[in-house]
Amino acid sequence: MDFITGLTQYMIENRSELLALTIEHIVMVAYGMALALLVGIPLGIIAARYQKLAPIIISATNILQLIPSLAMLAILTLYMGLGFQTMVIGLFFYSLMPIVRNTYVGIKEVDDSVIEAGRGSGMTPLQLLGKIQFPLSIPFLMAGLRVASVIAVAVACLGPYIGAEALGKEIISGISLQSDVKIYAGAIPATLLALIADFMLGKLETRSKQRMA
Amino acid sequence: MIELKGINKIYDDGFQALKDIDLTFEEGKINVLIGPSGCGKTTTMKLLNRLTDYTDGDILIDDQNMKQINPFELRRQMGYVIQNIGLFPHMSIFDNVATVPKLLKWNKHKIRERVDELLNMVNLDPETYRNRYPAELSGGQQQRIGVIRALAAEPSTILMDEPFSALDPISREQLQDELTKLQQEINKTIIFVTHDMDEAIKIADQIILMKDGEIVQKGAPQEILANPANEFVTEFIGEDRLENVLPSIQDMIQSDYPSISLNTTVEQSIQLLSRYQISDIPVVDENGAFNGIVNLFDLLNNKRTDLKTFIHDTLPTITENMDSHRLMQIFHEHKSTVYPIQTKEGNLAGVVERKQLVHLLHQFYMNKSGDSEWSS
Predict the structure, then answer these.
(1) In sequence order, which ranges of chain B are alpha helices (DSSP H)?
(2) Record's GO cellular component, any one (chain B) (predicted)?
(3) Is A113's CB within 8 Å of B85's CB?
(4) Could you say which of A199, B277, B279, B354 has the lowest number of CB atoms within 10 Å?
(5) Contact present, B124 and B144 (Cβ < 8 Å)
(6) Could you tell me where in chain B the CATH 3.40.50.300 domains are found?
(7) For chain A, how long is the longest CA-to-CA vector?
(8) Minimal CA–CA distance to B317: which of B347, B295, B337?
C-alpha cells in the first residue's frame, strides 16, 4: 500500500517531466513509423509487382528485424552518433518488415477476378494499383502497422542508451538507482502507450475491412 | 463488326490453343461461344479485348486492325462481364457501375443519371442500392451489377465469360431471361462464353461450337440442333435435346405428293383431286418450276376453263433448307391444307401437309412435358 501511494505521489510530483517524456516517446515512434510507411509501402508494391525482387526485399527487411535491438542501436551510433535521429532510424528499421510484408501480401491477396474485372474495364496498371490493389490491401497494411507500432513502443524504451530521452530514461535510471518507484513510473506509461496503439490500430483495421467482408 | 481472320495462338510450350480461326460475330446479336473445357472459347473471347494475345492472323474491328487501337481505349469501349462477377468490394454499387464512365472522365451529373438509369433497367431501386456495398447483395443481384457495369459507358460490344454459371439455377434462369429481354432494347453485339448447351439454345442468335481450338459448327441454335455437323456435335448437344427438336423440313417433306402441270384442264384437275381426296394441289410448269396452288372448291364453284386463272400463290416461299421454326410460323399465320416446299432453284420439291404439322406439334409438346424436361 505504501508503495502505491509512494508511486502515485512520485508520478504526481513529476507529472510535467513524465508527460514530456511520454510525448517524446510518442513523437519518436511516430517518426519511425512514418518513415517506415513512406519506404515500406513502395517496397511492398515493388515486391508484389516484380516477383523476382520479392524474395530479396522480403528477406532483407527480415534480417533487419532479426538483429537484436540493442545491437542494432549500438551499430547505428557508430555511424550516426548519439541522439534522437539515431533512435528514429532504429525504429524505422524495426518497423519496416511488418509493413513491407503486409503490403506485399495485401496486394497479392486481391482476388484474381477483381483484377481481371479492373483490367477488362480498361484500367492502366497504375489505375489498377491506385483504385483497386492498394485500397484492397489496406486492411493488411493496418495489421502490419499495428504489429510494428507495438514493437516500436518497446524498442523506444532503449532510448537512453543511445542518448534519446524518452520513457526509457525513468526505467533505466530506476535500474541504476534501484528505485522501484522510478521503474514503474516509466514502465506504466510505456505499457499504456503500447496498449493504446494496439487498441486504436486494431479498431482502424476492423473498420477498414468492415464493408468488404 | 468484329472479324477474326486466320487466327492462331501457340503458347511458348508449343501448345496450339487456336487453329486458324475464321469467324465473324453477328452485329447486334448474341453470339455464343460454346464447347468443352479447353476448347479455346474463352481464349477466343479474351483476344477481343486483348487480355490475351494471338500468334498470327488478324482481328478487324469495324475494318480497323485491332492492334492499332490502344488496348486501354479498346477495353473501355467493350463491356466485360466475368464468371466470378469481380465487383470491387471496397466500392459502393454506384462506384462499381460508374467505373468505366469515370475512366472516360464523364461529368458527374451524367454519370449519376446513367447509373440510376442502369439500376432501374435491372429493377434495382437506385435509392436503395446506390450506396450499398457488393457484400450486402445476393449473388444474383451482384451479377446484375456486373452486367450493368459492363453496359455503363454504352459500349457497342459486350464480352461475357460464363457470366451466370456461378449462380444458383433460379437466379441463372432469371438473368438469362433478363438478358434476352434487355438485348431487345439495347441491341449490342454480345459475345457470350458458356459450356451450358441449354443456356446457349435459350439466348443465342448464333452459336459457335468449338473443340480443340477449332470451330466445329456455327449457326442459329435451331440449325445446329436440326443438322448437327458430326458426331461430336450430336454428342455435345445430347440425345435428349435432339428428341425435343422439330425435324428439319427435309425430313418432313412428302416428295410423292401429287402435283399437276400448267396445261392440265380444269376437268382433269377436279378428277385428280377427288381421286386423291385432297383439296389443294400444287401446280408446276413443264420445267418443274413451282407456280402456285389450286383449290378444289374454287374449281368446282366456277365454270371458267383456264386452270391458270385458279392458281393462287398467297403463301410465303418455303424452301427445303429453311429453319423448321419458320415453317411453323407460316403454318400459324397462313391457313392451308398443304405447304409446298421449293428447291433453291424454285422447283417443287414436295409438300408438307397441315395435318402432318399438327401431329408433329402434338408429339413435340408431349416430349417437352415428358421426362426430358425434368431430367436435365
Answers:
(1) 41-48, 71-76, 93-97, 99-103, 108-121, 126-129, 139-151, 169-186, 197-203, 221-226, 231-237, 239-243, 249-252, 266-276, 296-301, 324-333, 354-369, 371-375
(2) plasma membrane
(3) yes
(4) B277
(5) yes
(6) 2-243
(7) 71
(8) B347
Q: Are A127 and A58 in contact (CB under 8 A)?
A: no
Does A127 contact chain B (CB < 8 Å)?
yes
Dihedral sign of CA atoms B11, B14, B18, B19 in order: positive
Q: Contact B175/B9 with Cβ under 8 angstroms?
A: no
CB contact under 8 A, A212 and B90: yes
CATH code for the structural domain at B2-243: 3.40.50.300
Give the CB-side neighbour count of residue B309, counting CA atoms within 13 A.
9
- The residues, any chain, with a CB within 8 Å of residue A129's CB and separated by 6 or more, are A45
Torsion of CA A145, A147, A151, A153, to 10 degrees: 60
Q: What is the DSSP letter of B311?
A: -
pLDDT of residue B371: 46
Count helices and strands (H / E) in chain B: 18, 15
> What are B219's strand-pairing partners?
B207
What tens digit of pLDDT does each residue of A106-131 get?
999 999 999 999 999 999 999 999 99
Reported confidence tier of residue B309, pLDDT bands at 50, 70, 90? confident
Task: pLDDT band for B350, please (50, 70, 90 cuts).
Answer: confident
Distance CA A63, CA A66 (A): 5
> Quick one: average pLDDT of B311-329?
80
| B175 interface with A at CB cutoff 8 Å | no
* Alpha-carbon distances of A213 from A136, A208, B116, rounded to whole Å: 11, 10, 25
Cβ contact (<8 Å) for B83 and A212? no
How far is Cα B140 from Cα B168, in angstroms, rounded to an integer? 8
Minimum CA–CA partner of A123 in chain B = B72
Mutation target vs B (from A121, A127, A131, A141; most B CBs, 10 A cutoff): A121
Domains parsed from chain A with CATH numbers? 2-209 (1.10.3720.10)
Question: Do B155 and B188 form a contact (C-beta atoms < 8 A)?
Answer: yes
Determine the pLDDT at residue B325: 75
Facing residue for B75 by CB, picked from A122, A131, A212: A122
DSSP state of A132: I
pTM score > 0.80 for this model? no
Residue the block writes with cell 418443274: B288
Output the DSSP codes for A61-105.
Answer: HHHHHHS-HHHHHHHHHHHH-SSHHHHHHHHHHHHHHHHHHHHHH
State the cell numbers at A152.
Answer: 516500436
The size of chain A, in residues, is: 213
CB contact under 8 A, B74 and A136: no
pLDDT the model gives residue B242: 66
For residues A44 and A37, give the distance between their C-alpha atoms in angstroms, rounded to a whole number: 10
Sheet holding B157-161, edge to edge: B78-81, B157-161, B189-194, B30-34, B206-211, B214-219
At A212 the pLDDT is: 66
ipTM: 0.80
Cβ atoms within 10 Å of B143's Cβ, excluding its own: 26
* Neighboring chain A residues of B99 at a CB cutoff of 8 Å: 118, 121
pLDDT of residue B374: 42
